[in-house]
Amino acid sequence: MMDFVFQEKSAEAFSDKVEVDSHPPELGDMEQPITDRGNLSRTSSGALTRTSALSVQVDSHAESGDIGEPISLYSEAAFEEFSQYASEHGGQRWQQECQQHGAEETEINGRSEQAAEETQLVVLDPEHPLMRRFQAALKNYLTKQMEKVNLELQELRTATKKGKVQREELGVILYGVQQQLAHLQMELEKSRDRHSQIATVRQQLEEELEGLRLTYKKTCQNTDDERKKVSAMQTQVENLALHLFYMQNMDQDMHHNILLMKQSTKKAEAEKVQAEVEKKKQDLLVDRLTRKAYELQEQVALFEAQIVAQAEDTKITRQAVNEASMEVQAINMEKKRLMNHWNSSLAGMRQRDEAYAAMQDLLSKYRHELKSLEIDIYGCRKSIRKEEEKNEMLVTILSRSQNDANMTKKMIAQCLSRQEALKVESNTYTRILHETEQALSRTQMDQAARVNELLSISKDIEKGIDTKEQMENEIMAKLQDQMMSSKAAKYFSQLAEKLRKRKMDLELHFSKVENDTAQVILNATHTNCRLTILQKTLSELDKEIKNIHDLISRSESEITKRSHLIENKQGVINLYNKRLEMILSQLGGQELGPLEVEINRLTKQIEECNSEVMTLQKYWLKLQKELVKLTHGREEQLASLDMLKKQITIMQQKKVRTENEIQQETKEQKDIERHMRNMSNDLIKLNMLINKNSNSFEELQYGNIITENEFVRSLKAAEKESIEMQEKHSQLTEEKERLLHSVVEAEHQIMLWEKKIQLAKEMRSAVDSETGQGEIRAMRTEIHRMQVRYGQLMKQQEKMIRDMEASVSRRETIAIRGEGQNKMDKKHITKSDFHRKKQELRKKISETQKVSK
Which of 203, 220, 246 represents a domain boundary (last residue)? Predict the structure, then answer.
């Protein structure tokens, strides 16, 4: 009674909780807390899942009965984590973390305190992925409760058979647990080996990544060195051009000054074009290096994705292996159970065979004793049986003959009664047939009369139509004559009305006649149908009468045959009785008939068969033992085969992985070779340019020597003319100095602009490389920080799910305590006490919800 009261109380409390908290979340219920708050956006799904987990945690505490206590430290920590996550999902989260990385914890704590005050509970759908574990734990708890009730029922029903079954089950369970423990240890060792293998593979991949990064840094350094070399070569080329320009200015005359100016401008343009070409080459180099950097980044992302995919594959394979191992364990347990049962059944069969052999021996003894008694009794019974058999034979013959006579009389009476009834029916049917034939002849006569009437009426109608046409013609003629008098007009109108009435009457009569003819035709068809049905029934009745007559004749013939057979058999029986008496007289008092001789022979055969059966059973038991041994050997071979198959699958997976790694390495090697070819081509181009510059430098030196020789010759010739041209020279020198000054200034300006362009290029390339590397570093740090944050959030989520599962286990412990208390207490709870406790629980639930808000 106490248990029943406690169950009723728990059921009502659970129903109240279901009305308050456990309804499935509707759309409005889920959207309300999000619209009320301003800080939390709709896209923050992680925050919603955390709040839903917290709401489920509070509900689970309320259901478990721990409503009076305040919310646990786990729920407060979860609220703080949720507020952290909500505050971090602002629009400027990345900038704040980059600028204020040191003061992040203080800001998050301050925001978490503000968000904890504003947060509201969000109830998730029970089929949400984050609720699966909690739902599974709750399902396990409820299934445990159901299984507990079922087990209690089974224990009450099967209390008498418990001792032996428990002993056998405990032995089997212990053996199974030992096997399972050994298997689990093997699986643990295998998982550790796999973990070590995966760790080694990961270290190798990280080392390869570091090698790729080092190669990337080396290529960047090589490009910087090449750029410096190119800039140095450009400065050398510019210095040589300036030297050449000054030598030409010093060597050439006034006449060649204009030409020199033109050549210098042309050279400047050519150098400008050359500088533009080199700039394009450098831009192409920069583009190549940036592409290479992007390719390396893509390769890094690809390696990371491959690592993630491989981890997922390993998880799936582990799950499949675990399921397969569990199935194999179950099969092995079932096999072992069957083998134990088989051995026990064999032992029982042996014991039964031994008991059966002992019983057979006793039976043979009793049978020998009984035979002697039966032989004595049999002689006394024989005479009695003979007289009884004679009497029974006579009685049976008499009763059979009487029964046959009675049956024949009854059948004859039945057949006669049926014949009379059939005769009466046939007479009635014949009378009905005559009546229907007479009615048919009458209806045919009526039909002929009606047809004649119809013909006469149709003739009258035709005559009336003709008269009508004549009258109409006359009326038209008279109308054409314009009616000489009013009397004639009235007469004609009266005639026309009479004709119309006559016409209407004739039409009505014609329709009536047509209806009568149709009715007559219907009656005729109906009578014809009845006639055909009656004829069919008559023929069937005639057939039945013939069949009955045939049956009567057959039964009479059978009666006569059977009477003859009975007489013949009676004669045969008398002959056999005489022969039996003769055989008995010949035997001389020993009343052993053929059946007794047959019995003795059969008993000997039965004994021989029993001995053969015993030998065969022993042979069968030997064969069963051999079969058990063979099955044990087969199981061992199957287990070794399974192990080999597993090793083969593992080696195949390793082979596939190594092949994939080799393919990736070959691809990387091809990419590196392609990059090396590009670099070698660039180096060849640079060497060609250097060779061209050195050749041009040698040509310029040779030209300078030639120009110096020519200048010496011209100086000797000019010394003669110098005297004449001193006056002109003074004027021209002034002009020359002025022009030289202007040219030098122009050249100086050109050099300054070229240096500025070069500096701008170098600055641009340096700025581009530094900014790109800085962005890459920032992105890497940001990715690392996000990964760390994601790991923290996943840990927090796991912690919350564990808390929810712990709440379910706590609920189970509280229920167990309540059951213990109910068993200890023997007081009955009244209805008023129950309602009072219910109201207190509701108040506590509302207080906990206010505290959580």
Answer: 246
